[in-house]
């Protein structure tokens, strides 16, 4: 299957600092081992070669295209109508990230740069505007708040883009919704909190994060908009759900959450994703990272490498079917969360549900 290019725009009006930022981002991406290409649109005709060179003379003589190459690089100049960034992106099949300079009115995900005394108001459409990078304080309506980054914090901007890249290209979400709900007496996935089912709440968190592949394990109800995955090993608890979901997933990693922790916030999940992504890209991270709060470890609130499906199957068939044994065999890292303990409470009996309401 041909690799789909990942395009991300650095947008803004003239003299907002787009080129400067891109030249600072590229070495930071390279530090993580990523291959970066760039594409810039020129609204005017531009000189495609240096006057006086052999290839320039070829073009002047009427050649519709010319190429020059050495042992390590090449350059092609071709006269063609209706060229698009999509066409050009496929010229860089090895690129992990393709940065677009400009494209402020495009539908690509983007960061818009605004600079004091140059462009203090945003002009990009809100659709696919992932963040604004500014060198001054921006006032926003709370109900339409877009992340605001420090234009002078290049590393912070790079980490923001890398998290988005990781989520879009590497990460799925698995919602474990197949528990028996024996203490609750009804399916916990269909319980409601603030007008939404527990399952809807967890799905919305995934969508807020930008995760495109959301898998729901073991759900038996009827109110589900995402892909429902049935266990290959019924009655084997959460490991049965993880085994089936990981084999279904088309991504390299999966964010795991159970359906009965509706209060876990997007911010907790975003921190977990950042921690996991950075450790893996730096080469020192384990294939599993889970959340810890206080003295409690949450093995079903974490990120797992989906290639662990075979190890999970071995534990189901030959072991005791315990999630902690998988953690011990695979190796895991921990993200410690400072948020209040009640955020992580499992709502799995009538008393805890009544308290939640």
Automatic annotation (TrEMBL):
<dbReference type="InterPro" id="IPR013482">
    <property type="entry name" value="Molybde_CF_guanTrfase"/>
</dbReference>
<keyword id="KW-0808">Transferase</keyword>
<comment type="function">
    <text>Transfers a GMP moiety from GTP to Mo-molybdopterin (Mo-MPT) cofactor (Moco or molybdenum cofactor) to form Mo-molybdopterin guanine dinucleotide (Mo-MGD) cofactor.</text>
</comment>
<feature type="binding site">
    <location>
        <position position="231"/>
    </location>
    <ligand>
        <name>GTP</name>
    </ligand>
</feature>
<keyword id="KW-0342">GTP-binding</keyword>
<feature type="domain" description="MobA-like NTP transferase">
    <location>
        <begin position="175"/>
        <end position="325"/>
    </location>
</feature>
<dbReference type="Pfam" id="PF12804">
    <property type="entry name" value="NTP_transf_3"/>
</dbReference>
<feature type="binding site">
    <location>
        <position position="260"/>
    </location>
    <ligand>
        <name>GTP</name>
    </ligand>
</feature>
<dbReference type="InterPro" id="IPR004435">
    <property type="entry name" value="MobB_dom"/>
</dbReference>
<keyword id="KW-0460">Magnesium</keyword>
<dbReference type="InterPro" id="IPR027417">
    <property type="entry name" value="P-loop_NTPase"/>
</dbReference>
<keyword id="KW-0479">Metal-binding</keyword>
<feature type="binding site">
    <location>
        <begin position="176"/>
        <end position="178"/>
    </location>
    <ligand>
        <name>GTP</name>
    </ligand>
</feature>
<comment type="similarity">
    <text>Belongs to the MobA family.</text>
</comment>
<keyword id="KW-0501">Molybdenum cofactor biosynthesis</keyword>
<protein>
    <recommendedName>
        <fullName>Probable molybdenum cofactor guanylyltransferase</fullName>
        <ecNumber>2.7.7.77</ecNumber>
    </recommendedName>
</protein>
<dbReference type="InterPro" id="IPR029044">
    <property type="entry name" value="Nucleotide-diphossugar_trans"/>
</dbReference>
<dbReference type="InterPro" id="IPR025877">
    <property type="entry name" value="MobA-like_NTP_Trfase"/>
</dbReference>
<keyword id="KW-0963">Cytoplasm</keyword>
<feature type="binding site">
    <location>
        <position position="188"/>
    </location>
    <ligand>
        <name>GTP</name>
    </ligand>
</feature>
<keyword id="KW-0547">Nucleotide-binding</keyword>
<feature type="binding site">
    <location>
        <position position="260"/>
    </location>
    <ligand>
        <name>Mg(2+)</name>
    </ligand>
</feature>
<dbReference type="InterPro" id="IPR052539">
    <property type="entry name" value="MGD_biosynthesis_adapter"/>
</dbReference>
<dbReference type="Pfam" id="PF03205">
    <property type="entry name" value="MobB"/>
</dbReference>
<feature type="domain" description="Molybdopterin-guanine dinucleotide biosynthesis protein B (MobB)">
    <location>
        <begin position="8"/>
        <end position="135"/>
    </location>
</feature>
């Amino acid at each position: 299957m041909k690799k789909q290019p990942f395009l991300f725009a650095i947008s803004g009006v003239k003299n907002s600092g787009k080129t400067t930022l891109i030249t600072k981002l590229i070495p930071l991406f390279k530090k993580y081992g990523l291959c970066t290409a760039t594409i810039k649109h020129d609204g005017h005709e531009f000189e495609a070669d240096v006057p006086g060179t052999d290839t320039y003379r070829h073009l002047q003589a009427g050649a519709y295209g010319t190429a020059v190459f050495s042992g390590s690089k090449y350059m092609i100049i071709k006269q063609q109508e209706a060229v698009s960034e999509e066409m050009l992106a496929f010229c860089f099949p090895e690129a992990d990230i393709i940065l677009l300079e400009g494209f402020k009115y495009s539908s690509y995900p983007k960061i818009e740069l605004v600079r004091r005394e140059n462009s203090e108001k945003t002009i990009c459409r809100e659709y696919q505007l992932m963040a604004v990078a500014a060198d001054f304080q921006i006032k926003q309506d709370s109900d339409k708040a877009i992340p605001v980054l420090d234009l002078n914090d290049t590393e912070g901007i790079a980490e923001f883009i890398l998290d988005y890249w990781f989520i879009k290209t590497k990460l799925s979400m698995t919602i474990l919704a197949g528990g028996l709900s024996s203490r609750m007496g009804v399916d916990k996935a269909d319980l409601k909190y603030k007008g939404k089912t527990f399952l809807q709440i967890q799905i919305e968190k995934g969508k807020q994060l930008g995760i495109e592949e959301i898998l729901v394990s073991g759900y038996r109800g009827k109110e589900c908009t995402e892909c429902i995955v049935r266990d290959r090993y019924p009655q084997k608890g959460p490991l049965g759900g993880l085994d089936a979901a990981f084999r279904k997933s088309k991504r390299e990693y999966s964010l795991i959450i159970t359906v009965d922790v509706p209060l876990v916030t997007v911010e907790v999940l975003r921190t977990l994703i950042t921690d996991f992504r950075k450790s893996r890209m730096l080469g020192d991270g384990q294939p599993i990272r889970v959340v810890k709060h206080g003295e409690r470890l949450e093995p079903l609130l974490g990120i797992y490498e989906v290639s662990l499906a075979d190890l999970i199957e071995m534990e189901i068939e030959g072991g005791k079917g315990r999630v902690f044994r998988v953690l011990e065999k695979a190796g895991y890292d921990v993200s410690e969360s400072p948020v209040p303990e009640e955020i992580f409470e499992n709502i799995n009996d009538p008393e805890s549900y009544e308290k939640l309401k």
